[in-house]
Design a protein that fits this description.
The protein is of the alpha/beta class and 243 residues long. The protein is built from seven helices and ten strands. The protein has a five-stranded parallel sheet with strand order 3-2-4-1-5, sandwiched between helices. It has a five-stranded mixed sheet with strand order 6-7-10-8-9, with helices on both faces. It is elongated, with a radius of gyration of 19 Å. It starts with a strand and ends in a 12-residue tail after the last strand.
């Protein structure tokens, strides 16, 4: 029988936001792989998983999560991580991979699954959806993500300032991921687009160090890398005005 690799979304950090299906998948797996950087510090995915399974089931695998400039080093790290997960899949019928947020939204699991299908063509790959940071931030801040016919645009600020400005010029809500290191530029883009007043940002959602603040309070200082921003459009039409 073919082995199974299941990417499990474990949400943005709050262990209570892992779905029932996600918890069941983690507990049913023979091993649960969690990604760590080469510094080997415990990541958010591992910390969340430990609320639901024992540490004996967890296998830490180093990924080049923080490598963006040295492609050769990044590719070598991916190959090494893929080889390690392939070993686990040859030993176990069911391997889960825990990823923060959702496994199909800017997730390490996407690249791992591609690598594993090349190494093990008969492998069965599945995903279990997870709560995203934008959903959690909307709930914690009271921000409404969409109304009526409004579009929703998700932009990783690592894609550059131009992509963010283009989205802010549109008619719907803009969500910016990974904007912490470019907070000053993001604040200025919001100001130029007339969206600063209603925007909110958050980091470490569901964790003791959680911060949820109005974007108008951004002072140009660097924020945690995984900070999330929600910038709703103007809604002047009253209830149902965007229908």
């Amino acid at each position: 029988m073919s082995s199974r690799l299941v990417g499990v979304g474990v949400g943005p950090g709050d262990p209570e936001l892992v779905t029932v299906k996600g918890v069941n998948a983690l507990r049913a797996a023979d091993v649960v792989v969690v990604p760590v950087m080469d510094t080997l510090e415990r990541g958010r995915a591992e910390a969340t998983v430990l609320h639901h399974v024992t540490g004996q089931k967890i296998v830490r695998v180093v990924f080049a999560l923080n490598e963006r400039t040295d492609r050769a080093r990044r590719e070598a790290a991916w190959d090494a991580a893929g080889a390690r997960v392939a070993e686990l899949l040859r030993e176990h019928a069911y391997v889960a991979f825990a990823t923060i947020g959702d496994p199909n939204v800017y997730s390490t699991f996407t690249y791992l699954a591609q690598t594993m299908k090349e190494l093990l063509p008969e492998l069965v790959v599945e995903t279990v959806p997870g709560i995203t940071a934008m959903q959690d931030l909307a709930a914690r801040s009271g921000a409404v993500l969409t109304e009526g016919t409004e579009p929703l645009t998700l932009v990783p600020v690592t894609a550059g300032e131009a992509a963010l400005k283009e989205a802010l010029a549109g008619p719907g809500t803009v969500v910016a991921y990974k904007f912490g290191r470019r907070a000053a530029e993001v604040a200025e883009a919001l100001r130029e687009a007339g969206r600063l007043q209603d925007a909110v940002w958050g980091s470490a959602l569901g964790l003791p160090e959680e911060s949820v603040r109005p974007a108008a309070e951004l002072d140009g200082g660097a924020l945690p890398y995984l900070s999330t921003l929600i910038a709703p459009p103007r809604r002047d039409g009253g209830r149902g005005g965007k229908l």
